[in-house]
Amino acid sequence: MDKRKNTILILDDDPLFVTVLVELLKDDYTLFTARNGHNAINLAMNERPDLILMDVSMPEMTGYEVISALQYMNETKKIPTIFITHADTPQDEQQGLRLGAVDYIQKSLRAEDIKKRIDIQIEIINGARSL
């Protein structure tokens, strides 16, 4: 019997980067993608992913606004979020972590390093569930 694949929601307005993440993660995870914050919030409410990956700088709603909205709702406030972004000042990272992100990854990292950090978070999530 196959074990259920963990689910990840990817929110980024850059279609090229979304494609890179999908290619990187599709064999190990069930993926949902959104191009804007409103769609991501709806997907998070309906699908309840195990992990959310999101950019900070997006039109309409920033990643900071999206995580704030998700943290406000009972249905989504416990979903761990990782920012994967070009916003790279210490203040950007501090703000993301202060808003509740579990990690803050620079898009400039190698794909293998990004995947490893995502895998680690999924291991933490699965370990906490088995307690």
What features would you describe in this structure?
- There is one protein chain.
- The chain is an alpha/beta fold and 131 residues long.
- The chain is built from 5 helices and 5 strands; from the N terminus they run βαβαβαβαβα.
- It has a 5-stranded parallel beta sheet, sandwiched between helices.
- Strand 1, helix 1 and strand 2 form a beta-alpha-beta unit.
- Helix 2 runs parallel beside helix 3.
- The protein is globular.
- It starts with 6 loop residues before the first strand and ends with a helix.
- The mean pLDDT is 93.
Q: Keywords for this structure?
A:
single chain; 131 residues; alpha/beta; five-stranded parallel β-sheet; 5 helices
- What average pLDDT do the residues reach? 93
User: What is the structural class?
Assistant: alpha/beta
**Gap between N and C termini, in Å?**
22 Å
Number of helices: 5
Give the SSE order as H and E letters.
EHEHEHEHEH
Number of strands: 5
Low-confidence stretches: none
Q: Identify the strand order in the major beta sheet.
A: 2-1-3-4-5
Shape: globular
Helix content: 40-55%
Rg of Cα set = 14 Å
Largest sheet: 5 strands, parallel
**Portion in beta strands:** 15-25%
Strands, helices and their partners?
Layout: E1 7-11, H1 15-25, E2 30-34, H2 37-47, E3 51-54, H3 63-72, E4 81-85, H4 90-98, E5 103-106, H5 111-129
Parallel strand pairs: 1-2, 1-3, 3-4, 4-5
